[in-house]
Amino acid sequence: MTVRLLQDYLIRQAQARPRAVAIVDGDRRLTYAELDRQSNSLAWTLREAGCQKGDRIALLLPKSAVAIVSMFAVLKAGCIYVPMDVDSPRDRLDLILGSSGSRFLLAVGSSASLAEQLLAGTATTTRLGWLESPSHPEFLGGGVTPGFRWQAAESEAPPESTGSSEDVAHLLFTSGSTGRPKGVMITHANVIPFIDWATSHFNYTPEDYISGHPPLHFDLSTLDVYGTSAAGAQLHLVSPKLNLLPHKIADFIRDRELTQWFSVPSLLSYMAKFDVVRQNDFPKLKRLLWCGERFPTPALIYWMKRLPHVEFTNLYGPTETTIASSFYKVPECPVAEDAPIPIGVPCAGETLLVLDEQMQPPPVGDMGSLYIGGVGLSPGYWNDPEKTRAVFVDEPFGPASHRLYKTGDLASLGHDGLVYLHGRSDSQIKSRGYRIELGEIEVALQTTNGIREAAVVAIESTGFEGAVICCAVVPERGVAFEPQILRQRLSQRLPHYMLPSRWLRFERLPLNGNGKVDKPVIRSQFSESLHSEVS
Fold first, then answer.
1. What is the pLDDT of residues 176-188, one digit of tens each?
2. Could you report the per-residue pLDDT of 107-121, keeping only the tens digit for each?
3. Which of 40, 88, 228, 414 might form a disulfide with 158, Cβ 3.0–4.6 angstroms?
4. How far apart are CA 84 and CA 283, in angstroms?
5. Which domains does the chain have, with CATH numbers?
6. Could you tell me the pLDDT band of residue 399, with boundaries at 50, 70 and 90?
């Protein structure tokens, strides 16, 4: 069966291996036949509720088997799914829901209250799609009437497909510098080449037990879900509750006998910090992959010394270029703790270019801006041609129809032919694996009670969190400087991973010669403060 659309991976496995386990979610297991038939049923329900090709369907669902059923169902209905973070503040979810123009918002019992807040008493045209369960058979909200209710029913066949591989499969919303999240359009044709490359390169088999650690609104999860389906393997969903319990994560890898672990490095650094990995631990584990941020070399050494039987691979790529664009298999445990780990070479069908300000390659070893082109390149941002034009540019050396994405990362091409990263060229950072625009935090601070002025900077850390978000504050006159209260107020507008962890009070923000806020001075003061704490 030729794979043209992402759901074809599932359909193929349901035909070939219907009784094989597809998803393990706590004590619940779904076979490939059950996953296929349940997603067929929900797809028919969406069609009968009026959904048409290209409609957006927002998923206000915790990471679970029913969430993955919903993803496949939306695709089978010819629609576009929009995964939402159930732990994000309502204001942010409002922006995402409004920007996507979703026809339905799918919710379950645990997200019912939040769904009602988003839909009740507003002018939105989005309707509620209620996914019933034995514990929550009815929607109990008072202000919202569900547009449809669906139980875990099954259907043998999906609706007839008229889809093309160039159709958008999902929208992934990332941090925006203006305070508004940006919806990255990802097509079937963007994802399928990477999945085919990854399953072949890493030699996925039906006997693989694969981790499902990243949240479903994070693009790393795309490899987990569709890579598993492509191979006919088992996807073991990792509860977010384990993230603060490093020894429980280690127990999970052991008890589930995982053969692959894929996550952001911050979690791996956290586990190393608490020394939860034993010598020759996780005997079934074959490969450990990371992506999303820099993996500190000392933490990598910790892992590689304890797991000599495991293959370690660094993947790199922004959301706009679909999951990952380059890879580097670490050949041996680094000797020096300051040894740089490259992002390596392009994945199949991808192009990495390091260019200077004149859009020319600098000498080997010199730094430039990193651009990416190839099969994973997104069509751009949803309903935002201006932002799309700003970062998706014509390739200077190829046909005019070829485009590149300006990543904002600084990089160099080494004499070994590998690409190395050297940080960001703008105000965008990576913290705990999340891509964050510092400007979005500053926009939220401007409307936070008790703050007259504020500026946000990031300090690179060797700890598990990556970049530390720091906030310089000038309080309103007569208002006490209480970071915990300010943080709590800010949490009503921003998700937890965007909240500053360090705060300093200023009588006034320092300005440079141009009258702009002097961020280097602020950054220096935070660095001194962090250094004095370490000392």
1. 666 688 999 999 9
2. 999 999 999 999 985
3. 40
4. 35
5. 32-187 (3.40.50.980), 238-397+411-423 (3.40.50.12780), 431-534 (3.30.300.30)
6. low
d(Cα 295, Cα 288) in Å, to the nearest integer?
A: 12
Q: For residue range 225-256, what is the model confidence (pLDDT) as tens digits?
A: 999 999 999 999 999 999 889 999 999 999 99
Q: Write out the DSSP string of 217-271.
A: TSTHHHHHHHHHHHHT-EEEEPPGGGTT-HHHHHHHHHHTT-SEEEE-HHHHHHH
Closest C-alpha to 218, from 63, 375, 380: 63
CA distance 242 to 215: 13
Rg of the Cα atoms in the chain? 23
Report the residue count for the chain: 535
CA pair distance 324, 320, nearest whole angstrom? 10
**In 98-112, which positions are buried (b, 16+ CB within 10 angstroms) versus exposed (e)?**
ebbebbbbbbbbebb
How high is the mean pLDDT of the chain? 91
Distance of CA 269 to the CA centre of its chain: 18
State how far the Cα of 528 lies from the Cα of 138, in Å rounded to an integer: 56
Instruction: Decide: helix, strand or coil at residue 115.
Output: helix
CA nearest 30: which of 41, 14, 8, 46?
Answer: 14
Residue 534's pLDDT is: 46
